[in-house]
Design goal:
Dihydrofolate Reductase, subunit A, 8-stranded mixed β-sheet, about 210 residues, alpha/beta
Length: about 210
């Protein structure tokens, strides 16, 4: 059986929108794009955040993405140089190699290699993926998809890097009406930058 793992950089007020860059996602007039990247540049002098992401992604066997996040990833990791130094090259190689499963009501084809659309019944398709032998199926971004997964009890683990920031606006990971979930805190790490990395699992996951 595979494991559906949601990973996110999140603020104290629950915002997950566009942490990576100013133009990553301006939907809703969001003006704080790149907040996580900017914070890390100022505060994470030891590169602890990058090491954690490298550790996480070494276990990624597939990506599960909503349409907008897929397009962001395909336009970055999908075209960047696999021979780039450091984490960028490593993740580019990994993301190109592994399967990408895309939830979309509008896309009719996906061009990034090893990508495929899940079809009209996303929960059923994800349930089939989860039932197959394998490792971690990684979800980044994709707030609408995560909400759907939550409604159908399909998230096994959340890994949240909590930044000591309050933005007051932006897409939230757990918006109003998100499905009830009972989780167990299985690991927490305080980084010297002030970021707190928490891992939560389904309370019935053992």
């Amino acid at each position: 059986m595979s494991t559906i793992v949601v990973q996110a950089f999140i603020t104290l007020d629950g915002v997950v929108q566009a942490g990576g860059g100013p133009d990553e996602d301006r939907e809703g007039g969001f003006e704080h794009g790149g907040w996580a990247m900017d914070y890390d540049e100022q505060m994470d002098k030891l590169g602890e955040g990058g090491k954690i992401v490298e550790e996480w992604e070494s276990r990624t066997e597939a990506l599960l993405l909503g349409r907008r996040t897929y397009e962001i990833f395909a336009g970055s990791w999908g075209v960047w140089d696999e021979n780039a130094e450091g984490l960028q090259g490593e993740l580019t190689r990994r993301y190109n190699r592994i399967p990408k499963y895309v939830a979309s009501r509008t896309l009719t084809e996906v061009a990034w290699k090893n990508s495929q659309l899940l079809g009209p019944d996303v929960p059923a398709a994800v349930e089939k993926l989860r039932a197959k032998p394998g490792g971690e199926i990684r979800v980044w971004g994709s707030t609408e998809l995560i909400r759907t997964l939550g409604e159908h009890d399909l998230v096994d683990e959340y890994r949240l890097a909590v930044y000591p920031l309050v933005l007051g606006t932006g897409k939230k990971l757990f918006s109003d009406g998100f499905a009830l979930a009972r989780l167990t805190l299985v690991e927490t790490r305080a980084l010297r930058s002030g970021v707190l990395v928490n891992t939560y699992r389904r309370s019935d996951a053992g």
